[in-house]
Amino acid sequence: MTADTLVPPRTPQGKASIRKKGPNLEKWGWVFMRVSGVLLIVLIFGHLFSNLMVGDGISGLDFAFVAGKLANPLWQWWDVAMLWLAFIHGTNGMRTIVNDYVSNAKVRRILVVALWAVAAFMILLGTLVVFTFDPCIPNLSDASILSEACKAQG
């Protein structure tokens, strides 16, 4: 190609023109963002509907309501799926932004590793909270329904 010829605009050049062997992680990240986005819409609106529209509505939201939901395995898994998808979806989006705007490869790598480390830690903590939640904590008021239920447990 001579210097006076125009290269078509989407022609890969430099390192981008060499396709590496192995899985195309950017493509699978793109697919994940679309699929997780749709699943998150279903999970979030199901969560909002069950909390705000069913039963007493927003006035019924209190510690006992949350404790009752977290005692049900369906809602535990629902909340964990929402937690995992939201954190992975958000972290992958932030990774894309870092890759687009940080030009220094070393800084970009540090930021991406930090993003995934924080996300993994938060996912771990959130999952532990959902599956190990115990509403029978000391110092609940005597008027609480949970207080009576916890006394009955032992």
Automatic annotation (TrEMBL):
Stored InterPro entries:
SQR/QFR_C/D, SuccDH_FuR_B_TM-su
Q: Which UniProt keywords apply?
A: Heme, Iron, Membrane, Metal-binding, Transmembrane, Transmembrane helix
Entry superkingdom: Bacteria
Q: Name one GO cellular component term.
A: membrane
Where in or outside the cell is it found?
Membrane
List residues traversing the bilayer. 28-49, 75-98, 110-133
The family database entries (Pfam families) matched by this protein are listed as:
Sdh_cyt (PF01127)
Major location, coarse class? membrane
GO MF, one term, reads: metal ion binding
Question: What's the protein here called?
Answer: Succinate dehydrogenase / fumarate reductase membrane anchor subunit
